[in-house]
Amino acid sequence: MPEAACRFEGRPYPRECRMNVTTADFARKVGLALSLDDAKSDAVLKALSKGVQAAAQQGQTVELPGLGRLSFGGGAPANLTADFAEALGDAGDAATAVGSIAEALRVELLRVNSVAIDGVGTFEVKRTPPKLVNDINRCRMAAPPIASFSFMPAPALLHASGERTPVFQPVDEFNRAVDALASTSILLVVPSFDFFSETLIYYFEKSGFKPKAVTSVAEALRHIQTQGAYAVTLDNAVPESHRLSQTLKASRDTNRIPLFTLYPKGFNPDAPTTFTVVGDAHLVQPFEIRKMITMLEGELVRASEAKDQIQQQIMFMFPSEESQIEAAFDFGHKIFEQSGLNDEGQVALAAAFREGVGNANQHGNKYRKDKKIDVLYLLDREKITIVVKDMGEGFDHQRYVKHGKASDAITAARERGAQGRMGGLGIMLMLKCCNRIEYNQKGNAITLTKSLKPVPGEAPPVIPMR
């Protein structure tokens, strides 16, 4: 989207989040992989630390399958099975412990996180974001990112290794995965290989990108799953293009990939006829290729700067039509399930979301199918924020939020409902199911905020009975 489209209600999008995984956090992740309780998870990491330090003292090598080897002078491979068997009380589980730890570590690192393990050290993958620079002709272009891996040994490990220097050597497979994080591969999803797609490939290559063209959504999804993508350019004329948009943005693993959508001449992207997940930027044909490249480069830079604030952001819109509203509810359930909320929180948020959309449809758009509802979903480490906006004239929201909190809310809302006017029951429900609700000044957009974890001193959400 152009810069103006990177805002919702005048506010810039928050950004995605990079994590420093502590030993306690990592122990829980290992515990999930091995089906262990917290005590045994902690014991497993302590056993790892003990075994690695013993290997350091003896000049041995510790193998982490799929990740690399930690060497202290190039000696024989260390056997950590006894240490893990003592921690787990089961030699069979001990044999798989190293592999499970290595895989959990690999997953976190390839999310561009750092992982600290007490007594061992800090493993980290860094990615220098792309930025706009001037080329030799003083034209603005996006400089590619750089990804790198590093290991910082803990003081206890340095002490155990004595004069030997701990060296971590990643395996080739892991090195390739880290290199892929800095890939400038642009995936082009087009209806066919024609002059237009060849022109796009030419200009992408000229701008320093590595384009790959495919002609189906299935092929695009396979490419993203197996090889990843720096960005995706999607021609809306491709059959099932909506499925690619939904899949890409709904998953937290691929949500950060910028999606650039191309629409045919005469198409109005702001007047949806079906449930639509919106890309990060778009153009309607005809357009200049250079303009497209410039917009995409700007979106790549914006996305790369998004790492410190948000984990997922999705915009979707749909007409005020029953089947499309139900599609929005189904999509909402899918993203709530992977948000980190517990089951009770998911049900409460789904109820508030359903109420907010229902109010937008009934009171804002008056059930008119030619009007749309816009939704912005944002997930950060602490909360979920949902903005629901209709095309209505708004209402006196301050009065009804106040009534929603008052003890006579039910009576007042029923009286207004009997008169055919908007009441306060819906607002009261949303107040009970969320931590906070806000309206914009006009009163045609509501913001629902839900904490991922219970707020101390706050009553649990009231789950409505339908």
Plain-language structure description:
With 466 residues, the protein is of the alpha+beta class. 41% of the residues lie in helices and 23% in strands. The protein has three domains: 156 residues, IHF-like DNA-binding proteins (HU Protein, Chain A); 115 residues, Response regulator (Rossmann fold, 3-Layer(aba) Sandwich), CATH 3.40.50; 159 residues, Heat Shock Protein 90, CATH 3.30.565. The strands form six sheets. Strands 16-18-19-20-22-21 form a six-stranded antiparallel β-sheet, covered by helices on one side. A five-stranded parallel β-sheet has the order 13-12-14-15-17, sandwiched between helices. Strands 3-6-7-10 form a four-stranded mixed β-sheet. The longest helix has 22 residues. The radius of gyration is 26 Å and the shape is globular. The N terminus and C terminus are likely disordered.
